[in-house]
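Lecture notes, part 5. Sequence design as translation. It can be helpful to think of inverse folding as translation between two languages: the language of shapes and the language of residues. The source text, in structure tokens, appears below.
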């Protein structure tokens, strides 16, 4: 439980003095006071001191001397079971993260450390007001590039977005992706690059929400030494770094108006001029922009340039929230679990129908990202290789009793598989059932229409005729 002092206290477990100073300065920006332990043995010994009893959290580097990180987490849990702990791992340290979280770690962050992300992790693990249990968000994204055929979804609005994205990938125009946080905008952006003629070129990403507005222009266009206070060295911009490839500008709505004007100029001329520089450099790069806010409202309010919106929107689409495609939750959950099971330190893991009904009944305000986090936490903490409704206690508590055990009953009007009966007990019309079966097959076989037709035992031309007759939209 977080103490009642105005200043929270965190113990930093790291042996390198420079890293100790860096982390102490970083957490102080978030209102944290820090105590240092150079190794895991010292950290455990400090737990019983007056200072140790006042701790609100522990931050430990995976390279800290002493015992194995999972062993340290287990020991800390034995002595202070409620004390939140965040592990710092290497960039590809998923196996270490899995091991630490199985031992009881609350969250993990990866190097190089993003200051805002670390502070966010610390704030989350000590918070008692936000989601708890398996619903507590993970700080790091479990990134894994997906091809279009690996992106799961059979609902018409999702398939429509997928069709536009697949077509845009083959073109050279800028792309604008809209959608609420967690809907998969970055996944789509990376898939567009991978399926484009620029796939062999660099893919560079800029998250404008994680950068001070005053530094976004410098990050995109670069700057000469002395261009502004603090510009001690010349820096090449991300647009130049992405020359010949693509750049994902995430949260484009966060770009200040002055930088928006420079971006419009670049889109018109194809030339980059560093801040403080006089030389213009031709750059061949495709921009894939994402926005979590409706840009039309920002344009009306004068916070976003209309000419920039149109310049970026040669191809644009909006990703639906997960609550708008509830029927995709089951296939998507199975797909995500297959990917989670392939992570280092993990193994194959299944999920029961009862658990899927529970997942489909939840509203998923954090969308696909939240579903992935929940499944990862459940998989890490499960003592078996099959997740059941018992692995989702926080969701069950939120729903106030869970979902129906009847295998054919839809939840809140949405079906995990195919619903046969109407609420009055009568069978649904055959045409509706057939449409559901086809949608389920399209999602299950990831939009591979030849495979869908083969598995349904019909010809491909017959399948397309049925799609037309039943009004089913598809990206195939």
């Amino acid at each position: 439980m977080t103490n009642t002092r105005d200043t929270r206290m965190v113990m930093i477990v790291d042996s390198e003095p420079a890293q100790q100073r860096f982390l102490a300065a970083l957490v102080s920006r978030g209102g944290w006071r820090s105590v240092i332990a150079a190794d895991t043995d010292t950290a455990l010994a400090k737990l019983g001191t007056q200072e140790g009893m006042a701790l609100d959290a522990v931050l430990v580097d995976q390279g800290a001397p002493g015992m194995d990180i999972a062993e340290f987490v287990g020991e800390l849990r034995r002595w202070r079971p409620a004390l939140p702990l965040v592990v710092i791992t290497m960039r590809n340290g998923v196996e270490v993260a899995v091991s630490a979280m199985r031992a009881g770690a609350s969250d993990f962050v990866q190097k190089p450390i993003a200051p805002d992300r670390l502070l966010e992790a610390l704030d989350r693990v000590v918070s008692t007001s936000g989601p708890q249990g398996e619903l507590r968000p993970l700080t790091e994204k479990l990134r894994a590039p997906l091809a279009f055929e690996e992106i799961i979804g059979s609902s018409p609005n999702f398939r429509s977005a997928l069709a536009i994205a697949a077509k845009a990938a083959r073109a050279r125009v800028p792309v604008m992706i809209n959608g609420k946080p967690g809907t998969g905008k970055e996944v789509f952006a990376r898939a567009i690059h991978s399926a484009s003629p620029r796939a062999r070129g660099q893919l560079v990403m800029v998250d404008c929400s994680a950068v001070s507005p005053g530094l976004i222009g410098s990050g995109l266009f670069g700057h000469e030494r002395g261009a502004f206070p603090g510009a001690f060295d010349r820096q090449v911009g991300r647009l130049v770094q992405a020359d010949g490839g693509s750049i994902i500008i995430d949260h484009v709505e966060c770009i200040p108006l002055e930088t928006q004007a420079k971006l419009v100029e670049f889109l018109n001329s194809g030339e980059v001029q560093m801040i403080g520089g006089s030389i213009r450099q031709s750059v061949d790069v495709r921009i894939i922009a994402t926005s979590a806010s409706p840009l039309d409202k920002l344009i009306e309010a004068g916070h976003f340039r209309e000419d920039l919106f149109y310049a970026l929107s040669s191809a644009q689409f909006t990703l639906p929230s997960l609550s708008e495609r509830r029927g995709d939750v089951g296939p998507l959950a199975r797909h995500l679990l297959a990917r989670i099971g392939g992570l280092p330190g993990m193994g194959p893991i299944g999920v029961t129908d009862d658990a899927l009904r529970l997942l489909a009944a939840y509203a998923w305000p954090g969308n696909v990202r939240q579903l992935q986090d929940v499944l990862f936490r459940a998989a890490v903490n499960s003592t078996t290789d099959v997740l059941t409704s018992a692995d989702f206690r926080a969701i069950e508590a939120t729903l106030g009793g869970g979902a129906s055990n009847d295998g054919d009953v839809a939840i809140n009007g949405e079906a995990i598989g195919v619903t046969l009966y109407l609420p009055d007990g009568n069978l649904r019309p055959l045409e509706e059932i057939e449409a559901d079966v086809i949608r389920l097959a399209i999602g299950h076989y990831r939009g591979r229409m030849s495979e869908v037709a083969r598995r349904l035992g019909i010809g491909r031309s017959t399948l397309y005729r049925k799609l037309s007759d039943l009004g089913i939209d598809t990206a195939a």
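The translated text above is only one of many valid answers, since several sequences can fold into similar shapes. Confidence is low (pLDDT under 50) at residues 404-415.
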